[in-house]
Design brief:
alpha+beta, 6-stranded mixed sheet, 9 helices, 393 residues, 4-stranded antiparallel sheet
Length: 393
């Protein structure tokens, strides 16, 4: 439970809400650190340099931007603590490089303390899925636009599953930009700020035809492919054109479990992807499956029709193409595929570096099909989730 009784709380070096669930009751200087004893009996030790550069004073942390104003070199290398005390539940520290007392918000102090705790699970930790998932996590579109809690639930589903849908949105020009912009900055591409799936007489992408598209991620030819993609169906009376979604993370993890040699190849052998256009020439290189420093899957790079030839000895070429085909066999296996029909008023959002998307072919002569799309980035999603959660506290 949050304690609102503490007077005159210092500001913090961020805009987080730091509930005061425990108060410091005593503190002592320990050279280049401060030991804090809490009301619940816990003890924490804080590095002097960490506390010093987070001092809530206008010379160190700007009270409006909440950003650090000084360089690490402004703090002496031999910084230590002269004294430490607690008054009215607030820690006060006097450092050797200044005469005044620096005071610290108890919620921030406790929230940033090392207490031997196991880190909390990532709130955006992926939930892996396959064809057994009944449907894309879906939310009422008008309700999400009117209510931050519903909007947040949609974003959290997107973060967890890599794909989520709004349904029943009104037909209105600019609505897609409005919704994506409410999350964060929209990312332009060589297809423009907003692109459509309309058929072109001289198509600049297979997406602008009525042909089937195998599971893929978009723009693997970019150094950092867009992290988010939004597709807003405004009209669809054609036959065919079913949307397909595959959890690339699930495919990758199954390969890791079932075929270590294939997994090693797909995570270490680089492909070069390049867009094929008359007026642009984007190229980027990377493996089909990228891992983070802890070995977790963090990205799928797989725009199948943008691959460049592998220029390498024959054995390496053979290894590259055999591994890519093995990945494609899995990605196109119906046991991984979720199939959806785009209906007017649907907005699908998905993680473009996780969820492979595609479509079946459709009859362009029978009916109308109007789907708008925009790109954004994962950073925008995670930022908006944090802010909405913070505002809800």
């Amino acid at each position: 439970m949050r304690d609102e009784t503490l007077p005159d709380l210092p500001y913090t070096p961020d805009f987080e809400t730091w509930p005061v669930t425990h108060r410091p009751v005593a503190a002592q200087a320990e050279g280049d650190a401060v030991r804090v004893i809490w009301a619940d009996g816990a003890e924490s030790v804080h590095l002097a340099r960490l506390l010093r550069e987070n001092s809530p004073d206008a010379d160190t942390i700007h009270p409006l931007s909440r950003e650090l104003l000084i360089s690490p070199t402004a703090i002496p290398a031999d910084l230590s603590v002269r004294s430490a005390s607690v008054e009215n539940g607030i820690l006060g520290v006097v450092f050797t490089d200044r005469p005044d007392t620096c005071r610290y918000h108890p919620g921030w102090l406790r929230g940033t303390a090392w207490l031997g705790q196991v880190p909390e699970p990532d709130p955006a930790a992926p939930i892996l899925w396959d064809a057994t998932l009944a449907e894309v996590p879906s939310f009422d579109g008008p309700a999400a636009l009117a209510d931050d809690a519903t909007f947040l639930a949609w974003l959290e589903a997107l973060a967890h599953h890599g794909v989520a849908r709004l349904r029943g949105l009104p037909e209105r020009d600019g609505l897609l930009l409005e919704i994506a912009g409410r999350i964060g900055t929209i990312r332009d591409s060589n297809f423009g700020r907003v692109f459509t799936s309309a058929i072109q007489d001289d198509p600049t992408s297979n997406a602008y035809t009525s042909h089937a598209l195998p599971p893929h991620t978009d723009l693997a030819s970019r150094e950092c492919p867009p992290g988010l993609q939004f597709l807003h169906c405004r009209e669809n009376t054609t036959t065919g054109g079913m949307g397909t979604y595959v959890d690339g993370y699930r495919v990758a993890e199954d390969i890791r479990t079932e075929d270590q040699e294939l997994f090693e190849t797909l995570t270490t052998l680089d492909w070069t992807f390049g867009n094929r256009a008359r007026d642009s020439d984007y190229r980027a290189t990377g493996p089909v499956i990228a891992l983070d420093a802890q070995g977790a899957v963090r990205e799928i790079r797989y725009t199948v029709w943008l691959r460049q030839p592998v220029v390498a000895p024959l054995d390496e070429q053979r290894r590259a193409y055999e591994s890519l085909r093995a990945f494609a066999v899995r990605a196109e296996d119906p046991r991984y595929r979720m199939e959806v029909r785009y209906a007017a008023g649907d907005l699908f959002a998905f993680d473009n570096r996780r969820a492979l998307h595609g479509r079946t072919g459709y009859d362009a002569a029978g009916g109308a099909r109007f789907i708008e799309g925009v790109y954004s980035d994962r950073d925008e999603l995670w930022s908006r989730i944090r802010v909405l959660r913070r505002d809800a506290r």
